[in-house]
Amino acid sequence: MVQIYSVQKGGLIDLELIEKTESEWKAILDPITFEVARRKGTEPPFTGRYHNCHDRGVYLCACCGTDLFLSEDKFDSGTGWPSFTKAVSEQNITIQVDHSGGMIRDEVLCALCGAHLGHVFNDGPPPGGLRFCMNSAALRLRKE
Questions:
Q1: φ and ψ at residue 71, rounded to 5 degrees
Q2: Whose CA is closest to 39, among 24, 51, 27, 22?
Q3: Which of 7, 34, 49, 130 gives the lowest tally of CB atoms within 10 Å of its CB?
Q4: What order do you get walking across the sheet with 57-61 strand by strand?
Q5: Does residue 95 sit in helix, strand or coil?
Q6: Which residues are catalytic?
């Protein structure tokens, strides 16, 4: 069990971790979401549906529907990927060191299903200074 913050309920809820095989995820996800979220891929900059989206709502994990980011915390980083100053709750994400691509970065994962969402950097706007640089393919927007 894991505690996840629910925006709709306004508090923490207990949920069982979601574990599926690669073939099970492949059967239920579209190819780009599978490649990004389950195989830790990255969509090309300025190509994702949310990089220039200004709709209000909650951004969810494309794999399991966990609440991840609020539209009010989204900003234009100029990088070509949707960027946020913070997550809905630290409960809803996991951060781990990523050594891929010859770099050392902090990878952001969904705490419920382990989906790769993107990376977090320390070059965001004040006051927090964080930039959660996410892949549109790993997100779904639940509009207000």
A1: -60, -30
A2: 22
A3: 49
A4: 67-70, 57-61, 139-143
A5: strand
A6: 133
The DSSP secondary-structure symbol of 136 reads: G
CA distance 58 to 104: 29
What number of other Cβ atoms are within 10 A of residue 142's Cβ? Answer: 14
The one-letter amino acid code at 89 reads S
Count of CB atoms situated within 10 Å of the CB of 59 = 26
CATH architecture of the domain with residue range 2-143: Beta Complex (2.170)
Distances (CA, A) of 118 to 15, 36, 51: 23, 9, 13
The structure's pTM equals 0.96
Q: Cα–chain-centroid distance for residue 2?
A: 17
**What distance in Å separates the CA atoms of residue 29 and residue 110, rounded to the nearest whole number?**
16
Per-residue pLDDT of the chain (144 residues; tens, 9 = 90+): 999 999 999 999 999 999 999 999 999 999 999 999 999 999 999 999 999 999 999 999 999 999 999 999 999 999 999 999 999 999 999 999 999 888 899 999 999 999 999 999 999 999 999 999 999 999 999 999
